[in-house]
Design brief:
The complex is a heterodimer of chains A (184) and B (253). Chain A is an alpha+beta fold. Chain A has two helices and five strands; from the N terminus they run αβαββββ. A five-stranded mixed β-sheet of chain A has the order 1-4-5-2-3. Classes of the chains: A alpha+beta (184), B alpha+beta (253).
């Protein structure tokens, strides 16, 4: 009996400590969950960036794009789309010709000059010459809704810039955009 | 009775102390978790961004193998207004406009090879044994255009042709600015030049920049010595070096 002197009960004894303990457990669990979410998000961003780099290594492999049919069948269908399927990313690659000099795209420029405008124009200046994507059901002649979190990379490339009978090669730009999940 | 109350009080204090200690430990653990999350992926991200810049620069050099020099005649003009830009390259006789003389299939690297294939010490002087060949100017015009996204973002860039680790020297025409043919947008180098180390190594000076990214690609040139009978051929092995850095004076973009 003397051993139980001052004993209030199994809970009663620790009653004052329950609140800080519960607060501590909640804080710790919440921190773990939040950190887990952040790490997942960051990993996804890194995966997307890695996939975008992989796509751009394929598309800039030679440094020259001079054949639209070859680009469509070999680069696009055989290489880019297969790589994107294996890394589970959505992507858009556009090739623009800048035979009269590279114009940096700014707000207020015509929509056709957007790096995400889908077209197969024969225009030699700032229009999309060819494109490749694995997103289905996107019609030509409009700007593709690329999500804000997409990774976008641009590269220079040599392209055909015919001048009269001369089959010259001039400057072009490739834009590679990659993202996970659905389009915007 | 009094002893019982004292005991209860002590037990209560001990339990409270345990609870607060636990809360403190949980808070410290949470702080450590946030510390880890804050730095997680930063290095990977940095490495991938560097990989992008290096791939961009490799693409620039690859493009120079294929781009016809005559397509670069409008580089020193504003694309929208047609007004001349880039004071160092807008001369109609020595600037980018003069590349229209090479209409046909002379690529930028063809002209650069021709500029280099002369008697030693070879020079980047827009000449091939006295005959005008605008090799270094063609490369300058190409880089002015292709490095635009980085130059507009505050980065500086430089280009060297190296042989056995030393930069092939540029030479300007008498009367023009002494270092006009140096291929860089770094004012410090354009005003005072660089030594035999070249632009890219000189940029690794703490006063210029602490962080220089560079690519080097092999570049072979055949030199034919026509003064001998039969003409002697020599295969010269050069390296093209393209580098980029954040100037110390500018804020990091």
């Amino acid at each position: 009996m003397s051993k139980l002197k001052g004993f209030v009960g199994p809970l009663g004894d620790d009653l004052p400590s329950i609140f800080p303990i519960v607060a501590g457990v909640l804080l710790f669990v919440a921190s773990l969950l939040y950190a887990n979410n952040l790490v997942d998000e960051k990993n996804q961003q890194l995966d997307t960036r890695k996939a975008a780099l992989g796509l751009s290594y394929i598309v800039t492999e030679k440094g020259l794009i001079d054949d639209a049919a070859d680009f469509k069948s070999v680069k696009c269908e055989d290489q880019l789309q297969k790589f994107a399927a294996s890394t589970r990313v959505n992507f858009l690659v556009t090739v623009k010709r800048f035979c009269q000099g590279i114009r940096i795209y700014q707000q207020g420029s015509p929509p056709q000059e957007s790096p995400y405008f889908l077209d197969e124009s024969r225009d030699l200046q700032a229009r999309t010459w060819m494109y490749c994507t694995n997103v289905e059901g996107v019609p030509r002649g409009q700007i593709m809704d690329v999500p804000a979190h997409a990774v976008a990379l641009s590269y220079p490339v040599a392209v055909t810039c015919p001048e009269g009978d001369l089959p010259l090669r001039g400057l072009g730009m490739i834009t590679v955009a990659a993202w996970k999940g659905k389009t915007a | 009775m009094e002893g019982e109350n004292r005991m209860k009080k002590r037990r209560g204090q001990a339990a409270l102390f345990d609870g607060i200690t636990f809360l403190l430990l949980a808070s410290l653990s949470a702080a450590m978790i946030f510390g880890f999350v804050g730095t997680f992926g930063v290095q990977q991200d940095r490495v991938m961004r560097s990989a992008y810049v290096l791939n961009y620069m490799q693409s620039v050099v690859k493009a120079s193998y294929y781009v016809d020099a005559s397509t670069l005649t409008r580089v020193a003009e504003d694309v929208n207004s047609g007004n001349p830009v880039y004071g160092d390259l807008r001369s109609p006789t020595e600037g980018c406009r003069a590349l229209s003389d090479y209409k046909g299939s002379f690529t930028v690297s063809d002209l650069l090879k021709r500029d280099l294939s002369e008697k030693t010490p070879e020079k980047l002087d827009d000449a091939f044994d006295g005959t005008p060949v605008m090799g270094v100017t063609a490369m300058h015009c190409a880089l002015k255009e292709l490095m635009k996204p980085f130059a507009f973002s505050g980065f500086s860039y430089g280009f060297d042709v190296l042989r056995s680790g030393l930069a092939v020297q540029t030479e300007a025409k008498p009367g023009s600015r002494p270092f006009r043919r140096l291929v860089t947008n770094e004012p410090a180098f354009l005003n005072s030049g660089v030594g035999q180390t070249g632009v890219c190594l000189s940029a690794q000076n703490p006063q210029i920049s602490s962080d220089v990214l560079a690519v080097r690609v092999p570049f072979k040139v055949v030199y034919v010595d026509g003064s001998q009978e039969p003409p002697a051929r020599e295969l010269r092995e050069y390296e093209l070096a393209l580098c980029i850095w954040t100037p110390q004076t500018a804020a990091s973009p």
